[in-house]
Amino acid sequence: MINFLELIYPNVCGFCNKICKENICIKCMYQLKQYKIDEKYVKKHFDGIGIYRYKDIIRTKFIDYKFNNKPYLYKTFAEIILNDKKICGILKKYDIIIPVPISKKRKQKRGYNQTALIAKYIAKKTNLKYENNVLIKLKNISSQSELNKNDRIKNVKNAFGIKNEEKIKGKNIILFDDIYTTGSTVSECSNVLKKAKVNNIFVLTFAKD
């Protein structure tokens, strides 16, 4: 059956804008290999991994996604993650995926939470359960990108909390964030999740700055 909506608005590659079946074309997927790092994070409260370097076209596209009102790019980033066999193997070991939350003020201004869109799509395509009403932002804070490492740690201190603790107690959690810089945000989130007695936490980030 012909999908007339797709004829009017066909899928395009989020990087080169050419029409393709998926949201990332084979050519762009191949070109992204030069930015692949699979850098592991081993911290007090979590293990994790960043998949790409945050530079050049990846940085440009994420800035578009987050700050230039292009929420549709979430499918491109999510499908890049799901095309990674190593990452998919990791995802199978976990129960729930939770996006790093943003404040109500920032979400209202932007119109969406960029990490939530990607995490929800990943959950839809895998066996992971998506929870976005457990880890919550308790207060508005300064943008982390504007601060140095020490100030970032202070900035996120006590910025997150837990609701509906029973949904995650004893579960294995994927905590998803888009960009990993100093790790202060995911460290604070992981600390809060650990206090809620989750089993294991794995931090997945698309890119490492």
How is this structure best described in words?
The protein has 209 residues and is of the alpha/beta class. A six-stranded mixed β-sheet has the order 1-2-8-7-3-4. It has a two-stranded antiparallel ribbon with strand order 5-6. Strand 7, helix 9 and strand 8 form a beta-alpha-beta unit.
Helix content: 25-40%
Strand order of the largest sheet: 1-2-8-7-3-4
Distance between the termini: 44 Å
Q: Rg from C-alpha positions?
A: 17 Å
Which structural class should the secondary elements be placed in? alpha/beta
> Order of SSEs, N→C?
HHEEHHHEHHEEHEEHE
Uncertain spans: 1-8
Strand content of the residues, in percent? Answer: 15-25%
Total number of domains: 1
- Main sheet overview: 6 strands, mixed
> In the CATH classification, which architecture applies?
3-Layer(aba) Sandwich
Number of helical regions: 9
Number of strands: 8
Average pLDDT, rounded to a whole number, is 89
What would you call the shape?
Answer: globular
* CATH fold-level label: Rossmann fold
Assigned CATH class: Alpha Beta
How is the topology of this model organized?
Elements: H1 4-8, H2 26-31, E1 36-42, E2 47-53, H3 56-67, H4 74-82, H5 85-91, E3 96-99, H6 104-110, H7 114-125, E4 129-130, E5 135-137, H8 149-156, E6 160-162, E7 172-180, H9 184-195, E8 200-208
